[in-house]
Design brief:
With 36 residues, this protein is mainly α. The chain has one domain. It has helices spanning 2-14, 18-35.
Length: 36
């Protein structure tokens, strides 16, 4: 699972969409925290 995430992460960084990924990832983490 982690390997897939790292591959996607590297692709996103190369694609110059790091901010979009960071926002989406941060939003997902925030939603998980709220669900607890």
């Amino acid at each position: 699972m982690e390997e897939v995430v790292l591959k996607l992460f590297s692709l996103v960084v190369r694609g110059g969409r790091f901010q979009v990924f960071a926002l989406a990832f941060g939003g997902g983490v925030g939603l998980e925290e709220r669900a607890k």
